[in-house]
Design goal:
Layout lengths: L1 H64 L20 E2 L13 H19 L4 E2 L5 E2 L7 E7 L12 E9 L22 E9 L5
Helix pairs in contact: 1-2
Length: 203
C-alpha cells in the first residue's frame, strides 16, 4: 500500500517537471518569435532608409545636371508643410519656362522620372491589379528653394532643400525636415531624410 502511494507521488512529480519544462520552452520560443518579428521590422526600416538615401542622391544629381533650369525643380513652395510634393498621391505639377524649350523639356522629363521612382514603377507585382512596389512605403519627395540664402542677392544662388519621406513601421520622434507632413496617419510614422545643396555657377 505504501509502495503504491510512493509510486504515485513520484509519477506526479515527474509530470510536473515535464509541464514546467514545456512552459519554459514555450516562453523561449515566444521570445525568439518576437525577436524575429522585431529583426524583420528593423531590416525593413533599414532597407527603406537605404532606398531613400539613394533617391536623395539621385534628386540632387538631377538638379545639378539641369543647373541651367534648376529653378524648375523647386516644386515645394510651402516649406512649413512640405507641400506640394511628388510621389504617392503627389500634389505637385511640373512646368518649366526658365530656359530654352529643349532644356525646359529635359527638366520636366527629369522631374517625371523622379516622380516615377518614388511611385516605384520600376518594379511591379503582376496579377489582376498590377501594383508598383519598387520604392519605400508611401514614398514622397520635396524640393524647395530658399531665396533668403542667396549670395549677394543673386537669383539662383540660394539653397535647395531636397527631402524624401516614407512611412515607418512604428511611431518615433517627428522628423525635423518637412516633407508631406500629416500624410502618414501620425507624424511619428513619417520618416524623412533631407539634404541642402547650392547649385554652382559654371559660367
Amino acid at each position: 500500500m505504501n509502495k503504491n502511494i510512493v509510486m504515485k507521488k513520484q509519477m506526479g512529480f515527474s509530470l510536473m517537471e515535464l509541464l514546467v519544462a514545456l512552459f519554459i520552452t514555450l516562453v523561449g520560443l515566444l521570445g525568439i518569435a518576437a525577436l524575429q518579428v522585431k529583426a524583420q521590422t528593423a531590416e525593413l526600416e533599414s532597407l527603406q532608409r537605404a532606398q531613400a538615401l539613394i533617391l536623395l542622391s539621385d534628386f540632387v544629381d538631377k538638379i545639378n545636371i539641369n543647373r541651367g533650369v534648376a529653378s524648375c525643380f523647386a516644386i515645394t513652395t510651402n516649406a512649413a508643410t512640405g507641400s506640394p510634393y511628388m510621389g504617392v498621391g503627389g500634389t505637385a505639377s511640373f512646368s518649366c519656362s526658365a530656359g530654352t524649350a529643349a532644356y525646359n523639356t529635359q527638366a520636366i522629363n527629369a522631374l517625371t522620372e523622379l516622380d516615377n521612382m518614388l511611385d516605384g514603377t520600376a518594379a511591379t507585382l503582376a496579377g489582376a491589379d498590377v501594383t508598383s512596389v519598387g520604392s519605400m512605403i508611401g514614398a514622397r519627395g520635396c524640393i524647395s528653394y530658399d531665396s533668403s540664402t542667396e549670395i549677394g542677392g543673386n537669383a539662383g544662388t540660394g539653397l535647395y532643400t531636397v527631402a524624401i519621406s516614407w512611412q515607418g513601421m512604428s511611431d518615433l520622434s517627428t522628423p525635423a525636415a518637412n516633407c508631406a507632413n500629416n500624410t502618414y496617419g501620425t507624424e511619428g510614422k513619417r520618416r524623412t531624410v533631407a539634404v541642402t545643396t547650392r547649385i554652382g555657377n559654371l559660367n
